[in-house]
């Protein structure tokens, strides 16, 4: 069993005033695949390293299965970790790299042999066991790093941006492998990344972090469909959600660039009651919820507006249209067959039932 | 175009060859002189008229200047110092590079300052300290001084340790290693070249030092190292007649050290460049 | 739950009687908590220190202040009826032992502090109701979190005895009048404050100090600059495209580094002598009629020293530069060639600045090292030719070699110490200045 609890965790580096992590509260359930995602410098790696014991916890309580672990040495925490740069021991063979932890714990030679071969088989690196890390490709080294982590059968598995040094295709491949391994071995896993696609595809639950503060915790679909603030809304989803700063007045939202959309009654009422009349809000709509085809335009009459295409990207089955309403940028996703030349004006309809509304000042969700 | 390139290349070859000759000349000269049978300190020709091995024989048979004994002295001191010095330097460098303790920064600053004092300013004091313990004019004293000096000479070694990625240590820590395990199984194996460099430097030091050795040995000629021995030979009244013997002695020291350097060239180069480039 | 970080002072205030007792009887808290070995150690330290201090220590400190009052001399011994030579106070030993005493006291204070810290930790264990570690656990820590204590303790003793103690001793001598007129055991010497500094900086000796200081700086600059510049050029020549036998050339030059410096320098000394090989050859070829005084003319000697130093220093610079050159990206050079730069411009604008940048810290170290470059000067010219205007120094003497002469030849230990301190100040100033500069450079790079 490995339930992790982080209560009011704070981390301040010496000689600095502003904490890297201010007040982190989180519970991770047994066997959960939890992903910390956020931009560089957001503090996600710091929290991971505090869990591993590689950084001191300035304040707060960190416990595993109810036992307080703040001052326990890394080697006694039963945690395995995959490092971003793999941290393979260059002077040892792949076999010795994977076996290192087991050798330290003085396990019998036979058992070490079996376990190393098992882990290598799972990762498909059995034929490299006698080689040195310098003779392996990036992807192979990554697998060795993972092998070293899973062979320990530790209670908790930590991964610090393990895929960021791989090229795009390998990344997609390894993502699937990691998911498979988690399904098979099933321990509590904490995965840190700045790539929201990895987060969305791998996680049971996601923690979005910015500037040391947790923005939202939830399942991928929760974060995708009900982002709590503009940061989460803009971070999750690729390409990002369109976030337009507009003024609300009497059922209509508009800005001084020519963008104007009439809102459905129910929503208008909520905004008015919330006191947002004549106030600024942030209107969020994903590119895939903006439609070009005539049927959609007919259906979503209320959310209709005109916009001019600046750049057209054909991705195959889909196309991305980077358009502008006056000075306001709007990204629209459409079918590949709807490829439109730059400069063309098009009529776009927004599926307002999928729209999000945020308070412009606090950035928090209104509706 | 091709001719121009060939011309400039030939020019470079000429320059390099001339420079190489200039550099090697003094060394060739001293080797030739060690075999010279006639003359004294100054002759006006380059190649000896008569060749002989007598100069070498003189070294080992001259009782006032027992070269053979000096050679053994220096060898013993060099070997023992090398072993102890390497151990101390490596251990200090590792502690200061990898281990966290709250007075580490301050210690590095103090070490920096201590190293800025001219080396033998403390020589006289060390001499009297040794006198108080009764160790003057002994080889043991020499070893003690060289080894104690190694404690603050950790910079190159530390610089190298600093380049080993910390994530290796961290990964090992999570795997269950103590700091001592990490030192033993990861840091040391990765540092072989630099350790060889450190040992090489520690070994060759006693052969070449004549400042410290002179103060400590005083006039105990039997206990001299080759360095002060030869220096004394050269600077006494006997200088003129023993000049060729001095040359022979020089060759006898220079040859093994040079061979050592060439065989271990790779490590020497690594040590010099890593220390310099990282500053 | 925050770490219960008690400072020692706070622990003394809030602690129980065991903590407070530890302040007076060292080791008591440890013994009362079952840490027998630790407790006995601290107790033993306290007892032995105070015994020694009362019997010897106080006397030593007293002598330190006076540096002896009884001069060696004849005293009439009533019993024997003749004059006997009575041993006087030996100022030098008194100074030495006095300083050693201070060090011992410091070590004791340190152990006292460690004792209090350990008691404080035990107090924390009590407050948190944690188990006190037994001997086995404590020793295990030596291999892990306290590894630095295990590894560094013996070297530190060496440093203390052979570096720090002598250094403090020598610095103290700068404030005494321990010179050739005041040599123990026959004579006493005593404290004279800053008198020696005044002498060196503005008194009799200033006439030697400042010219030597000037030459030391000139020498350091020239030696470092020539070795660097020509080392770079040599490296570039060997590394040039299309040159075969690179390794052979490099090995040849490395060879010259392997020959011990003092042998090389004595050879050079011999070759450049008035009757040496160089002069006799030149005369035999009728290029000159009188020997050139390479080593015996004041100005010429200075040039000679710099030139000979190039022979010694260039191979090393060449080595390091080669490493840097090999790591330099060829892309830049190719881009510059396309942009229309010729070989010289590429060297001046791309290669050389980058080499300089990488080597800057090392150059600074070399410069400071050259200020203290004893071997080259002493072995080549013995600091000569002697200059009658100087006090015990020659034209090519550096401050370091002068220090040596003052110590060995004229036994003016106090002056030597002052010079040593001044050299240190010089090195420190340059180091500080240089590192600030280098940091600025590296932030731009």
Automatic annotation (TrEMBL), chain A:
Keyword match Transcription: no
ABC transporter domain ranges (all copies): 4-236
Enzyme class: hydrolase
Pfam families (UniProt xref): ABC_tran, OB_MalK
Entry GO CC: ATP-binding cassette (ABC) transporter complex, substrate-binding subunit-containing
Matches recorded under Gene3D superfamilies: 2.40.50.100, Nucleic acid-binding proteins, P-loop containing nucleotide triphosphate hydrolases
EC number, UniProt record: 3.6.3.20
CDD domains found in the cross-reference section: ABC_MalK_N
Keyword annotations from UniProtKB, A to Z: ATP-binding, Hydrolase, Nucleotide-binding, Transport
InterPro entries, A to Z: AAA+_ATPase (IPR003593), ABC_transporter-like_ATP-bd (IPR003439), ABC_transporter-like_CS (IPR017871), ABC_transpr_MalK-like (IPR015855), ABC_transpr_MalK/UgpC-like (IPR047641), Mo/tungstate-bd_C_term_dom (IPR008995), NA-bd_OB-fold (IPR012340), OB_MalK-like (IPR040582)
Coiled-coil spans in chain: none
Protein name per its UniProtKB record: ABC transporter, ATP-binding protein
Matches recorded under NCBIfam families: PRK11650.1
Single GO MF descriptor: ABC-type transporter activity
GO BP annotations listed: carbohydrate transport
Keyword Transferase on entry: no
Species name: Weissella paramesenteroides ATCC 33313
UniProtKB/TrEMBL annotation, chain B:
Pfam families, sorted: BPD_transp_1
GO molecular function: ABC-type maltose transporter activity
Residue span(s) of domain ABC transmembrane type-1: 71-264
Gene3D superfamilies named among the record's database cross-references: MetI-like
UniProt record, GO biological process: maltodextrin transmembrane transport
Source taxon at top rank: Bacteria
Protein location: Cell membrane
Membrane topology: Multi-pass membrane protein
Keywords from the UniProt entry: Cell membrane, Membrane, Sugar transport, Transmembrane, Transmembrane helix, Transport
PROSITE patterns xref list: ABC_TM1
Transmembrane segments: 12-32, 70-95, 107-130, 136-156, 194-217, 242-264
GO cellular component assignments: plasma membrane
The keyword Metal-binding belongs to this UniProt entry's keyword annotation: no
Family label: Belongs to the binding-protein-dependent transport system permease family. MalFG subfamily.
PANTHER family given in the database record: MALTOSE TRANSPORT SYSTEM PERMEASE-RELATED (PTHR32243), MALTOSE_MALTODEXTRIN TRANSPORT SYSTEM PERMEASE PROTEIN MALG (PTHR32243:SF50)
Descriptive protein name: ABC transporter, permease protein
Organism field: Weissella paramesenteroides ATCC 33313
TrEMBL record, chain C:
Highest taxon in the source lineage: Bacteria
Intracellular or extracellular location(s): Cell membrane
Name of the protein in its database record: Maltose/maltodextrin transport system permease protein
Record-level GO cellular component terms: maltose transport complex
Transmembrane regions listed in the UniProt entry: 36-55, 92-113, 149-175, 217-240, 252-272, 303-325, 346-368, 413-435
InterPro entries tied to this protein: MetI-like, MetI-like_sf
Family indicated by similarity: Belongs to the binding-protein-dependent transport system permease family. MalFG subfamily.
UniProt domain ABC transmembrane type-1: residue ranges: 213-434
CDD domains reported in the protein's UniProt record: TM_PBP2 (cd06261)
Gene3D superfamilies: MetI-like (1.10.3720.10)
GO biological process: maltodextrin transmembrane transport
Organism of origin: Weissella paramesenteroides ATCC 33313
Membrane topology term: Multi-pass membrane protein
Summary of the function given for this chain in its UniProt record: Part of the ABC transporter complex MalEFGK involved in maltose/maltodextrin import. Probably responsible for the translocation of the substrate across the membrane.
Pfam family, one: BPD_transp_1
């Amino acid at each position: 069993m490995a339930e992790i609890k982080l209560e009011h965790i704070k981390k301040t580096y010496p000689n600095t005033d502003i904490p890297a992590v201010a007040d982190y509260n989180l519970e991770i359930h047994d066997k959960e695949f939890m992903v910390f995602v956020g931009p560089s410098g957001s503090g996600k790696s710091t929290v991971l390293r505090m869990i591993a014991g590689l950084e001191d916890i300035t304040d707060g309580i960190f416990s595993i299965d109810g036992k307080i672990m703040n001052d326990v040495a890394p080697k006694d925490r039963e945690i395995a970790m995959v490092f971003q740069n793999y941290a393979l021991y260059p002077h040892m063979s792949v076999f010795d790299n994977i076996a290192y932890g087991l050798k330290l714990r003085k396990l019998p030679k036979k058992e070490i042999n079996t376990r190393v071969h098992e882990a290598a088989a799972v990762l498909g690196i059995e034929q490299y066991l006698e080689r040195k890390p310098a003779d392996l490709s990036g992807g192979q080294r990554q697998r060795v790093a993972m092998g070293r982590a899973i062979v320990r059968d530790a209670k908790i598995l930590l991964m610090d941006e393990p895929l960021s040094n791989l090229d795009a295709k390998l990344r997609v491949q390894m993502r699937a492998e990691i998911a498979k391994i988690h399904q098979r071995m099933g321990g509590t896993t904490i995965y840190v990344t700045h790539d929201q696609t990895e987060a969305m595809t791998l996680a049971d639950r996601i923690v979005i972090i910015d500037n040391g503060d947790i923005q939202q915790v939830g399942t991928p679909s929760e974060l995708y469909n009900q982002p709590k603030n503009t940061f989460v809304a803009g971070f999750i989803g690729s390409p990002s959600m369109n976030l337009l700063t507009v003024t609300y007045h009497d059922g209509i939202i508009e800005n001084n660039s020519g963008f104007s959309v009439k809102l459905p009654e129910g929503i208008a009422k909520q905004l008015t009651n919330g006191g947002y009349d004549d106030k600024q809000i942030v209107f969020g709509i994903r590119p895939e919820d903006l439609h070009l085809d005539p049927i959609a335009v007919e259906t979503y009459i209320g959310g209709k507006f005109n916009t001019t295409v600046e750049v057209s990207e054909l991705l195959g089955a889909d196309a991305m249209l980077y358009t502008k309403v006056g000075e306001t940028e709007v990204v629209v996703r459409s079918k590949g067959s709807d490829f439109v030349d730059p400069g063309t004006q098009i009529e776009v309809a927004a599926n307002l039932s999928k729209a999000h509304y945020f308070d412009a000042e606090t950035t928090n969700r209104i509706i | 175009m091709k001719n121009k390139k060939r011309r400039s290349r030939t020019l470079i070859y000429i320059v390099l060859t001339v420079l190489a000759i200039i550099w090697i000349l003094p060394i060739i000269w001293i080797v030739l002189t060690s075999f010279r049978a006639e003359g004294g300190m100054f002759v006006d020709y380059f190649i000896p008229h008569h060749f002989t091995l007598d100069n070498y024989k003189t070294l080992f048979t001259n009782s006032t200047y027992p070269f053979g004994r000096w050679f053994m002295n220096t060898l013993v001191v060099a070997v023992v110092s090398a072993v102890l010095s390497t151990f101390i330097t490596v251990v200090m460098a590792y502690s200061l590079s990898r281990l966290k303790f709250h007075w580490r920064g301050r210690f590095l600053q103090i070490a920096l300052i201590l190293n800025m004092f001219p080396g033998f300013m403390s020589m006289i004091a060390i001499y009297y300290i040794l006198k108080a313990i009764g160790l003057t004019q002994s080889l043991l004293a020499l070893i003690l001084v060289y080894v104690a000096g190694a404690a603050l000479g950790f910079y190159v070694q530390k610089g190298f340790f600093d380049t080993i990625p910390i994530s290796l240590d961290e990964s090992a820590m999570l795997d269950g290693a103590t700091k001592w395990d990490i030192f033993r199984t990861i840091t040391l194996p990765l540092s072989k070249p630099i350790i060889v460099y450190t040992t090489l430097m520690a070994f060759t030091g006693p052969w070449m030092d004549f400042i410290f050795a002179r103060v400590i040995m005083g006039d105990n000629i039997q206990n001299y190292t080759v360095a002060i021995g030869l220096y004394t030979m050269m600077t006494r009244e006997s200088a003129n007649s023993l000049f060729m013997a001095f040359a022979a002695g020089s060759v006898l020291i220079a040859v093994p050290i040079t061979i050592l350097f060439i065989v271990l060239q790779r490590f020497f180069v690594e040590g010099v460049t890593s220390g310099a480039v990282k500053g | 739950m925050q770490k219960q970080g008690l400072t020692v002072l706070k622990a003394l205030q809030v602690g129980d009687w065991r903590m407070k007792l530890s302040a007076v009887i060292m080791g008591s808290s440890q013994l009362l908590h079952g840490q027998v070995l630790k407790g006995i150690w601290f107790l033993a330290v306290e007892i032995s220190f105070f015994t020694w201090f009362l019997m010897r220590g106080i006397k030593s400190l007293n002598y330190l202040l006076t540096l002896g009052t009884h001069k060696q001399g004849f005293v009439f011994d009533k019993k024997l009826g003749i004059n006997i030579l009575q041993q006087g106070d030996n100022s030098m030993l008194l100074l030495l032992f006095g300083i050693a005493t201070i060090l011992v006291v410091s070590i004791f204070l340190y152990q006292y502090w460690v004792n209090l810290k350990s008691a404080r930790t035990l107090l924390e264990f009590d407050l948190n109701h944690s188990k006190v570690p037994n001997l086995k656990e404590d020793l295990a820590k030596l291999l892990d979190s306290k590894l630095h204590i295990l590894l560094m303790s013996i070297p530190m003793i060496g440093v203390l005895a052979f570096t720090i103690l002598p250094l403090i001793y020598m610095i103290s001598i700068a404030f005494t009048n321990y010179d050739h007129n005041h040599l123990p055991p026959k004579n006493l010497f005593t404290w004279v404050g800053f008198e020696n500094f005044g002498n060196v900086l503005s008194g009799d000796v200033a006439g030697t100090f400042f010219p030597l200081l000037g030459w030391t700086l000139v020498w350091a600059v020239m030696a470092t600059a020539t070795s660097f510049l020509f080392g770079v050029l040599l490296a570039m020549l060997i590394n040039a495209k299309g040159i075969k036998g690179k390794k052979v050339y490099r090995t040849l030059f490395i060879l010259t580094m392997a020959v011990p410096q003092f042998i090389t320098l004595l050879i050079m000394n011999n070759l450049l002598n008035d009757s040496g090989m160089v002069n006799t050859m030149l005369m035999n070829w009728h290029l000159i009629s009188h020997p050139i005084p390479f080593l015996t003319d004041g100005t010429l000697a200075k040039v000679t020293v710099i030139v000979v130093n190039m022979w010694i220093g260039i191979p090393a610079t060449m080595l390091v530069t080669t490493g840097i050159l090999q790591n330099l990206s060829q892309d830049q050079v190719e881009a510059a060639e396309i942009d229309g730069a010729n070989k010289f411009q590429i060297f001046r604008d791309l290669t050389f600045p980058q080499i300089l940048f990488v080597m800057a810290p090392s150059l600074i170290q070399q410069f400071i090292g050259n200020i203290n470059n004893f071997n080259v000067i002493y072995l080549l010219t013995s600091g000569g030719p002697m200059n009658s205007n100087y006090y015990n120094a020659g034209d090519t003497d550096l401050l370091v070699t002068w220090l040596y002469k003052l110590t060995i030849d004229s036994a003016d230990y106090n002056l030597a110490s002052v010079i040593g301190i001044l050299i240190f100040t010089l090195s420190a100033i340059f180091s500080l200045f240089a590192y600030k500069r280098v940091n600025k450079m590296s932030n731009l790079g």
